[in-house]
């Protein structure tokens, strides 16, 4: 089966050790995690994992089943890129000399739609938020001139369809 | 935590006691109905052992000779009684020695709570003496685990541990408790856990799916049931029998489903899987409807999935949603507890019989009997067979014994030939295949069913992996019967070497000690048999014994277990020789 990008969204309790338990499910099946983000969610005291993998749908479906089975997981979903609105962030640390020595640098900054976070005597830092390929393009544009440091965040995503966690929790309360 | 507190009803609150965390652990165990635990003391769990000393009139602690033995004993106890087994160990090596038992309980869905001591909170992460990250290590092999670092957490976490271990699809839970949490005091009250908001143990039955299942069953010409341990764990034995009889459907079992249905029932057609019976394996690929009940399509059951029951519609009765379409695609999935779903199904199923279809199983059985079974249980050659020993146990125990097996040839033979009238009578390590399981598991099984005969059947290899637990049998006078089927080989691996590695017997020949002398060293009555003429009498003497008894049977060294589905082959390519 064909591999594809999938975003897995996991709503869970915020407990020590759950990250280990969830990542172990991928480890057991020898599936690499492309990116991972853990944050609070729209619901108080409920955490949200956003996990990106490149895998066949069949194995993603089974992984989501195994994740959802964990006691501290409320619900897990998986979506294709088309089914989500997603973003990543990246920081570029660039030598300040380039601003003056390489005229092209200023054009790259303008075209990249990135923000200048700070400018120091020796370096400046650009922040870029966007889709993976947009960040890749900006990275490729700077690369010939030298990037002092680069870092990219995990993907964050919201689904176009509803993920009705509140009603699941309400159902439990009413039991 | 918040939700649990919200559920608290004032009427259920006990009077508050100011006690230590260690004493609280004992009160939690007592409140959960625990009267027997297995374990091994050590530095980081000593405060709890000190309390066990004070509470020994209410709570019996059995000192196993190795922590692995404690887990398997707890498993045997749980499997035979349906209650949660409890094992306790200290930090570090004590905790890591639990891992095999945890993994075994996880894959075989056995309810167990393991409690480990841990170094004090302020030393966590400092590589302190006997510190190990047991929560990290045990995560993949537990249903849930938790590290308690404050005494005040103990009641709620212990309640949650027992609830999670026993509810839904059962499994092992490990609670790691730092030493400071054992020493510190708390205001103790206890209430049982009734729910965890992120955890739904039993899915609601979907009536539409049950109607669809009934329609498929009513229209099937060659329906075939394969049942697993879900029937035993869900206490659905009566419902299964009612379905089989009403709809006239031949039913076979997985190794963990064995004993859920009387082996003498005319519609019980035997075992599926690698060393299962000929008919149920071959006819899996000829049925038009496969009804899987509380089983998970393990690879040892299905052989090659590409050729498994492709002609059949599949109905899957299952409590764990993650099992649906995991290995075999279900046309109809019926989620829920098997007892509940089968009960809803029964009125919708038409009374029927499938005599011609059942006759095909009988025909295949005759072929298997003539080529395999006859020679296994009534051999004419000189050497003793494992099959005839099992047959003698059947006869002497009148099909009433609990039979606990280890892993390998003797296990397959025992499960093929043991006869059972009663559920929860077959205790074996199915999913993990843990050698060394049987001896400690038999101790637990006997203590969980003191009124039943418990016979451990073990190979000479696996026996020596946990042989030290003879000390428990001796010290606590556990009247368990032990049969070692000794072929001086790691028989199953040797069989594979013969069949698939051109008889290169790499490290499968065992030079064994005098097992009878070892048993005598533990003051256990013992006997060795190497000729057929003594077998019947020896087995009868063992069964008649009121005390524990060790019987070594010297069996043929190079016998093979057949039928056999070679690894990765189709169920219909099962070999009879």
Structure description:
The complex is a heterodimer of chains A (175) and B (577). With 175 residues, chain A is of the alpha+beta class. Chain A is 34% helix and 39% strand. Chain A has helices at residues 18-28, 57-69, 97-101, 103-112, 132-142, 165-173; strands at residues 3-12, 33-40, 47-56, 73-80, 84-95, 115-119, 123-130, 149-152, 156-159. In chain A, a hairpin with a 3-residue loop joins strand 6 and strand 7 (123-130). Chain A is elongated and about 65 Å long. With 577 residues, chain B is α/β, with parallel strands linked by helices. Chain B has 24 helices and 20 strands. In chain B, helix 2 (21-31) packs parallel to helix 8, helix 17 crosses helix 18 and helix 17 (386-397) runs parallel beside helix 24. Chain B is globular. The interface between A and B is medium-sized, with 24 and 24 residues.
